[in-house]
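Tokens help. Consider this.
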Amino acid sequence: MNAYEIPNLRFSLPAGEDIARRRFVNVNSSSEGVLATAGGSAIGVSMNQAADGEVLEIADGIVMVEAGAQIVAGADVEVGTDGKAITKTTGVGVGVAITGAGASGQFIACKLVSVSNANGTDGTDGAMTQTILYTSSDLAAGADITDATLAVVPAGYNADVLSAQVISNGSAAGIDAGNTSVFAAKVGTTQFAGVTFDAVNAFPASGAAEELTLIAGATDLSAGSVILLSVTNGATADLPVFMVQLVLSLTPVA
């Protein structure tokens, strides 16, 4: 059977260890890409081989991933040893095998899923969580981001925003009382989370995170809602590469 790779979101992180191509990966507390833990969650699949400290390219969607054992097409998949794909048993379901593998070392086409609830049972309680990661470019001083699309709430689900964070990958400069950096996460013109960095509230240091304040009454999002990010910087506010992470709780529409 032929399989076609159709990556969806593509992004990059510094590798936190040596990582082979076509393995499930996750992110560590230093905002580095690392091999996903067996049975745990994954943010995507490594698209290149990267040594510790090199740029790791990551993608989700329909991607090829190395199997760690025999897998039958149509089976739910979880992370096995060394980030390889295995048939789901007690771990978090991270995807569905579109093509099968006869043995370890072969490759399968896998449709990644970004939803799983906290206990890894994939929505048996009716609610699931979805983690969204957006990686910025290295903005020049005074450069803004206007309504960048982060995600869309899936059809058939309503979403509640559980948390929002800015994660720094470098050092900011030029932020002060007159040159602020204002982050706003919103749907249309309705803001549901935000934070302002200024002389009092410093932009986080490299590897650190800052919570966006959730706005009461605005965090309930309906199916089809397009989530946007805007960052408005003063003339001297110079931001490094950063990530914005959103965690949503998805509930099926009744």
The CA atoms of residues 24 and 159 lie 26 Å apart. The chain has two domains: 6-113, 129-252. The radius of gyration is 19 Å.
